[in-house]
TrEMBL record:
Coiled-coil ranges (or none): none
Cellular component GO terms held in the UniProt record: cytoplasm
Source species of the chain: Jiangella mangrovi
Signal peptide: none
A UniProt-annotated Pfam family: DAO
Protein name according to UniProt: Glycine/D-amino acid oxidase-like deaminating enzyme
Lineage top rank: taxon: Bacteria
Sequence ranges assigned to domain FAD dependent oxidoreductase in this UniProt record: 4-316
GO molecular function: oxidoreductase activity
Keyword list, A-Z: Oxidoreductase
Amino acid sequence: MSSDVVVVGAGIVGASVAYHAARAGAAVTLVDAGRPGAGVTADSFAWIGSSGVHAGPAGALRASATDEYHRLEAELPGLPITWSGSLSWGTTEEVPEAGPGQEIVDAATVAALEPTLLEPPEWAVWAPGDGAIDPVGVTERLVEGARAHGARIRPDTPIIAVRRDTQGRVAGVETAAELLSGATVVLAAGVATAELGTSAGVRVPVGPSPATLFRFRAPAGLIRGVVNNQHFDLRQVAADRLIAAADSPERTLAAVRSTFRGAADVELLSTSVRGRPMPADGVPIVGPAAELPGLYVAVMHPAVTLAAAVGRLVAREVVDGAVEPMLAGCRLDRFQAPTRR
């Protein structure tokens, strides 16, 4: 594939692809209908973890997540990442076996890790290498990095369609005002990827999966790391702010107040529901489209967790012509019907 690359979608995945491709020497244009990081990325819980056992086609990709963010942190100093570790309990009735990067800790250790817990559980899974990011802050930093390496950034530019040339290859993407030409187009536009693929005659089976995020006003230092139980995923994002990924605002607020000492005055500030992109089989879709040479797809859940790794690997494939084994189980062609003889 040519190193003349148009990346559609400036969420965290598209921003990562643009940064890594530009850093690799490609002439990159990053285009988005809105502002960088303003879509579903903005309301991500943004837990970064590689611990535990990760089976399945994207297992190796998921296992690389924290290492890839440490690499990115070294490349882009000041990246807003907090390496706080995570505690999980109560999601199963039996004590699980600790996976790679995890340990099973007792109530005394849990209380030392999260001192405001009213009733520390008898056991929890402690993953000290886990962390969390400011997803918008990281996206903006990736865009700045891409621009520093020569990328053109085109926000507030809706894409109408992907265009072919007369030889049946990608020609670029059409906006209301112009054709942005490119020998390679990377679709990293979340749920909009399906419609854009259709415009080029390529089926990308991805649809919206509701994801709810609650924001709370809370006392400073209420919790130290990422906390996960049967009621919520919870973390502190500022001195007086918590965010939670959960289902019900009323039940989540009640659970927070009853779980932590000093949480009686925690107050719900806002609720957001976004349609995160979910491939039909739940596995990331990352790779070229056989039907249209020059078209590449990068759409997935969990996008924030995988963005650092995926950006580097996609850039290796579209700029350097590599074939990355870690992406082997994530290809678009797995959805094609087998040929009958």
